[in-house]
Give the backbone structure.
Amino acid sequence: MNQRGDSIKFFQRAKFFFGQGFDDYIQRFLSGDDVSDINSPSQVDSRTAMKYTAVFACVRVLAEALAGTPIMLYRKKENGDRETRNDLAVYDVLHNQPNEEMSPFNFKETCMVSLNLGGNSVSQKLVNKYGNLVGLYPYDWSKVTITRDMTTKSYCIKSEMERNNWICREIKCFTSPD
């Protein structure tokens, strides 16, 4: 049987099992009324948007699709071709273990969720005493403010994070190379 026939059979079985309530639920889902407590006059933010099953499903599909792809780094050659690079510290961190609490899949998934819901993904670089990259910790995008001073062409990243009952306030500024 073809895919359309299979989906029709699925909906017929679901209607039989759930009765008339299934049609009502599908109509509420398609019209966006499947979450009852969100109909307040306040603005919708990422937390309340994730209560919609359609938003949650889309964010999840996108995040898991990216998280499942391998990390590849390339260097452009002089003739325009590219070659794969796996001898860089950032490759080792992203491919093997971004930090001691997350697998590469979880790290990429977290970054993609942050990118989808907030439009940005921010991570803290962890370096050893020699300045080598040894890890990345994703920040909660809603607690990070990035500003740019157009006169000095510098960026400032301000964050306030809570880890292990400690509040960490950081301000990092750097100058853009342009």
Summary: Residues 33 and 110 are 28 Å apart (CA to CA). The mean pLDDT is 77. Strands lie at 73-76, 82-85, 123-127, 133-138, 144-149, 154-163, 166-175. The two ends are 59 Å apart (CA to CA).
